[in-house]
Structures
1.
Amino acid sequence: MADNKIIVLKDISVSFDSEVILNNLNLYIKDGEFVTFLGPSGCGKTTTLRIIGGFVTPDKGDVLFNTKKINNLPPHKREVNTIFQKYALFPHLNVYENVAFGMRVQKKGENEIRNTVHEMLKMVNLSGYENRNVNSLSGGQQQRIAIARALANRPKVLLLDEPLGALDLKLRKDMQVELKNIQQKTGITFIFVTHDQEEALSMSDTVVVMDKGEIQQVGTPLDIYNEPKNAFVADFIGESNILDGIMHENYLVEFAGKKFDCLDCGFGKMEPVDVVIRPEDIEVVEPEKGHICGLVTSVTFKGVHYEIIVDVNGFKWMIQSTEVQNPGDKIGMILQPDDIHIMKKSKYSGAFGDYSAFSDEMYEEQHNKPITEEE
Amino acid sequence: MKSKSINIPYILWIGIFIVVPLILVLLFAFTDSSGNFTIENIINVGNYASVFVRSIWLGLIATVICVILGYPMAYALSKIAPNMQEFMIVLLMLPMWMNFLLRTYAWMTILENNGLLNRLLMFIGIGQVNLINTSGAVVLGMVYNFLPYMILPIYTIISRIDNRIIEAAQDLGASRRKVFSKIILPLSIPGVISGITMVFVPAVSTFIISKMLGGGANILIGDLIEMQFLGSSYNPNLGSAISLVLMILIMICMGIMNQFDHEDNSMGGMII
Ligand SMILES: Nc1ncnc2c1ncn2[C@@H]1O[C@H](COP(=O)(O)OP(=O)(O)OP(=O)(O)O)[C@@H](O)[C@H]1O
Ligand SMILES: [Mg+2]
């Protein structure tokens, strides 16, 4: 298992109409893992999938499949199958023939086709739907037919382009579990595209965070969440307070006018850095006991917790806490060393991580119509 | 309830211009010149069986040629650059904006014994060939006049096929040929059916084309009917009977045709 990279993308660049869509992308995908491309709309996720599927030829760079270069291999010769963003079932064929399509094209025997179709339909819980017209199925059922159709070809790699985008929340959750089960059962490499960070974190072995045609970070869901590489990743995955800081020495950082112990090292002396603090890590105490003091400007009830915006010398922090606070109260905040994560400065520094705009909106809302804090 | 009142003008239209004339045809077909009931007219239609056979046969040949020529043209049309497609469609329609009679006259001057084509043939030494007043000329006229009606519905339906469906087929291992035979062809059958209807029906009942290009020996049902109303052998009762039989024959043909269309019956409205 020394070399189990099933797909390698090497220095890939793509432009459409002289607009750069993917910029020098490098990525490898290990055999049998569940990889998710995560990023905002238009960042190039679908384009990356289409390069792997063979529908887009990169302007520059190589696509390797099991170490073989496949840049110019047409889609029908690739051992990769796709579940498209909008399913794309064949409207003139019934469920059985849709699932059988790939095998028919490969001229498989009638017996094998029948067995595989039944097996696949059983896997997606649609046994007995063989003769149904695909147009008469619900969105979730069409989705599962698309999965069965792709898996019936027994691909080495399955590409899934936001397959759950059109489903309601409940069905979405069920399908997430179902997809994960199918992936584990079959051992097929899944490359999954989504712009839903929760979906990405809960399903994947590896998450690839993309923005503006560039990979921002590759890592396990835990790495991505706990150790974001830059302000974009920190902001895109979950909520983050991102502050300017200065690394005095290893394990000692200054921000918000105070020095804090931290767990990060390897930065230059007095190097400017971005400091990330997750809202749920902050402990709220009495003003005089806190490392930092601030004024509560708004409180929103979110079900599991309250979302509290605190003004500290003009910088608005977000805190998530199960205890309610009142707007106008002075509170203290405690930050433990492992709550503090240090990132190198990047082009995203300063663009994210201050909840000013957010809290202004809230503030106005509250003053326009006097409602309770739990609004 | 509102939708019902909206329907009234259409129902009136259908009543005045479709149902009433049909009843009149029926009435004429089953009466003699003094208005008494008779089935003699219908029986007499049998005397013209050979004209019916020739009309349907020539119409069929023209339709088949239109499919053979039209399908590849429609397919090619749907594959060229989108702005080019618009231009090509205008080109295709251009002759249709010209009067039908004029177009057919033009062919007369081309096919005549000392027409354009024959002069060319003589010039290159093949000698004069009799082109005009043959059934071939009639078929040519039909194909020329009705080909756009074959191309347009096929083109429309092919260009509406979702590209993602084609990509899905490629993704599942289908080569270009397989994509065509397993996806594009079956999905375009409704267009072919509607094209066939739009070519076959006017081809069978045409009268100007056969008159101008076919000469006296190639009269078709259309000519026959025309003669009963306007021509020498004035007999609207027989004319109506012939029309009635023609209508029934065409309906049978289209019925058989639609058996080949296993898709949803979105084209069902085109039968008559
Ligand atoms: N065929 C094309 N021609 C021109 N531009 C294209 C083409 N395909 C994609 N683009 C552009 O490339 C960019 C990236 O598109 P892509 O579909 O990869 O985004 P995405 O990350 O999948 O977004 P989404 O989450 O909305 O699906 C977009 O700005 C899009 O407009
Ligand atoms: Mg996309």
2.
Amino acid sequence: MDVQTHRGNLIMNTATMAYRNLLKTIHNPDQFMDVIIQPIMFMLMFGYLFGGAISGNVKSYLPTIVPGILIQTMLSAASGSGSQIREDLDSGVFDRFKSLPMAHIAPLAGQLFADILRLVIATITSLSAGFVMGWRPASGFGWVVVSGLLAIFTGWAISWIFALLGLLAKSAASVQSFSLMIMLTLTFLSNAFIPIKTLSKTMKFIVYMNPITYVITAIRQILSTGSWTHEAWLVLLFGIGIVVVFAPLTVWAYNRNN
Amino acid sequence: MEAVNAIEVNHLTKKFNNKIAVDDISFNVKQGEVFGLLGPNGAGKTTTLRMMTTLLKANNGNVKIFGHDSVKEGRLARSMFGLTGQYASVDEDISARENLMIFSRLNGLSRMESKKRTQELLAEFSLLNSADKPLKDFSGGMRRRLDLAVSLITRPALIFLDEPTTGLDPRTRTQMWDTIRKLVKQGSTILLTTQYLDEADQLADRIAVIDHGKLIKIGTPEELKQEIGGTKLNFTIDRYSQINTATKLMTDQLGESINRNDKQLSATLNSIDQLAPLLSTLHEAQITISNLTVQEPSLDDVFMNLTVGKN
Ligand SMILES: Nc1ncnc2c1ncn2[C@@H]1O[C@H](COP(=O)(O)OP(=O)(O)O)[C@@H](O)[C@H]1O
Ligand SMILES: [Mg+2]
């Protein structure tokens, strides 16, 4: 062996795997399309359809809907990692990863790092779409960035859950349909598109049971008050909690699969 | 000092839900040898290979790669071989160059080394023109070549090839054979699996025949073919009057019994080299023949011969 082989290095391997996942998304831009087209479509549809009915006009509906669609997009971006991991595991290329003298966990770690880019793009698209439609948050640009970062972190935390689903599921297709169901349920049974005060008692109860409601509330508060609120802390802790619980479970499921 | 074996397989056994896929298989592969695992679909070739390459845990038995236990010293063992699986194990969504770069990096090469090696391999496997095209547009042969190139990044001393030519057209198949022969010349040890006797015959120094997870026979291609009884020769004699003369001439020359069925004569050749002299003898005796067929023993013949009375 005259080509020098170094011992696999977790950080390097993970960086390479993240780079691979990025290349994959660049070659298949349709993987970005969902996080670009979806928020724009929803923003236009919901804004112009329901803006008048719910808030009197489009402009006064935007502070409600922009955070809602932002988080909805985070959820669908996160759900993509589940089906991607499943697809990867089922493809022949994974055998090769496993047969290389590299850090075992790198393919999984690389996937979850590459997810961050999707989340960033989704966030920028969602917020820009709102801006183009006339959304002008009171808090100023700095707090818009803060709310974006909180949304990205929450999305990233949730992608660990979807990664676990992907590892436990039978096929990529089943992950995809299941993820879509979860995504729709969580966003429509929350305060994403509607003010909670318009809801019946039972619906209020359901919406308050939904953690996504708190995430959206926190983002709205940051954007309207320009401050890091009690709810923002709650959401941050919630995100950390998810990672602490689901990262080890995901790694366990990943190793079990091997 | 005797060189350590490239592969030692001891009592390897694998069950899938109580169905036995690999049944107590043992063999050694010497350094520099081309070793063929020959068997029909479902024989257990891939399963054996996956256990040898640490992708699958065995229920029983062990594998040593250059003396290192593939389980206890998995990482070391993995650094010593390249693997080309039965189904293309390259990334469909990225280009050939990107595949080679990424796998070079994952193999621990620096960015510079990776670039250099990628370029070398693209050239060596005639992939330079399509290096940056998406793999979706690749033919089966190109995909296989890339797959093989990726397994050769670290110039491993040992290469596993699972059915390297299954599904390829005859021309691409011959190209793949040439590539494999080139690797052999460079001193690599190769373990390949195949469903085709002629492929094993063309490439392998020794062949292990497996069926239903059991190792039936191990030997050189010549030994195997001898056991099967060589090449079948068939033709018809045009004129009845010549049949007796022809039969006598053939018996004298081949030293074997000749089967006769009406105007049709058939015999078994120990070697294909016997064919030309035989034909010229018949020609000199002015015996005219037609419908000549020469049939190499097929895998079916191997199994007919080797498994009779065993299963
Ligand atoms: N993951 C698996 N689960 C259950 N059965 C399997 C699995 N892999 C292979 N088998 C079975 O083991 C046997 C050997 O398969 P395989 O090693 O792929 O054969 P070959 O490569 O010689 O065609 C087959 O009967 C196949 O169905
Ligand atoms: Mg096979």
3.
Amino acid sequence: MIYLDYNATAPADPEVIEAMKPYFNELYANPSSIHTPGQKAKQAVEHSRAILAQFLNTRVDEVYFTSGGTEADNLAIKGLAFSRNKRKKIIYSSIEHHAVMNTCKYMAKFGYEVIAVPVDKYGVVDLDFIRDKIDDNTLIVSIMHANNEVGTIEPIKEIAQIAHKYGAVFHTDAVQTVGKLRIDFKESGIDMLSLSGHKFYGPKGVGALIVKKGLRFDPLLHGGHQEKNHRAGTENVPGIVGLAKACELAQKEFPQEEKRLRQLRDKLWREIDSRIPEIQLNGHPETMLANTLNISVKYVEGESLILNLNAAGIYASTGSACSSGSLEPSYVLLAMGIPAEVAHSSLRFSLGRWTGQEDIDKVIEVLPGIVEKLRAMSPLYKK
Amino acid sequence: MEYSEKVMEHFMNPKNVGEIKDADGVGTCGNPVCGDLMTFYIKIEPKTDDLNAARIVDIRFKTFGCAAAIAVASMASEMVKGKTLMDVKNLSRNEVAEELDGLPPVKMHCSNLGVQAIQEAVKDYLKKLGRDDLADQIRGCLESKESE
Ligand SMILES: Cc1ncc(COP(=O)(O)O)c(C=O)c1O
Ligand code: FES
């Protein structure tokens, strides 16, 4: 099996699983309990928090564990809105993950003006548009660090500066970059950052929101005193321990792994581009995640490509995993100005820790034949 | 997306793919939402305007479409081969979907597309014979609004 869908999710690293194991049935006590086993569990949570803080260069008390990226995004936007009600404008990008986009849109119900920032053909947000729309009434600017479908990396430092000029909070969904790129929270100007374990070899269902010290926000879940009253519910101790282990492993492989993936990805693009006519790269040619390759194979439809690859034991995706139940082409590609029929022809390969040279070679070998077969069937393709 | 084995079979090895250069009728339908497009080419014998006598003797298709669209086109082409134009007029999307052991609900329109494009080819044939009146009684492609 050749798994090339790491942006959708990654397998948990065996070391992560090993680290988690004792917390299911040996060190299973509730971190809120004051007895010795409870305190041991508490220590595990706090030790994990320290690892995350060190990994991202944040303070320990700036780390809030959540149930994943979606909750972290919701907590950032709603939590901020619910605690500060004077500012009534929310700015986000037109290529945000649904976790941010739908949360922002929902806030319109509560009287917020929500503004989607357009992107250029590479998927880079329009900074002038932000400068034009932002004002003293702006609560939050939420722009993702890198896009999950095309891999384009956004100029978040500049965006943070623009936001701060108006006293707005800058949030970034860094679900696709934590573990892939080195992030220095203090130095970056980010006020709130979302991350998710399962995108970088940690477990699913655990993530974190990093919130700059002093920034007030309300919880989404009310109940116990966990996470300093900002996220009630007994901590997912095994998940949190696994998340911390994933951070340690990522730290160790910087920056060689990025270099390795970039070489594989570049080779994949170079070779299929030379073997298959009329394909295009979607995303930024340079400022792009090293592991992501989004292409459009003109005149054939993405799903047909995926299922033919699937039959060959190669698992890729068309755009985001979440939208594969819908008929419309990727909103990310459409926002980049890519025509609908070209967007329908998109195919995403995302590489990861267990992707090897031989996997890439297999795709290079198999894909041209699949494309040829499907194009022979296509009324749009004229040789 | 869960597809039946039948769908996958027709999708991986579609029947009757291609074009007919001297086709008696050609029909194309598209769905504006999913962007899919299907074209059918048919040969008719005997070349009469009697819907109960004229039969489809050869059929080919091309499609820019999802897996369901390809499977539908392949299955529908098999189903109408040798059939009269009246049979084609009465063919429904459900019959094609049933022959494929069902389609996911969002993919029912793919079945529609297949049936409509074949009907459009029949309409084309009838119009060439000057029988626009008969052609008008056959469904063919729907208006974009309704085609969902
Ligand atoms: C950019 C981005 N944000 C948020 C999420 C949601 O994270 P989670 O699956 O942990 O809820 C994902 C992935 O699913 C993502 O790619
Ligand atoms: S999704 Fe539209 S024809 Fe299949």
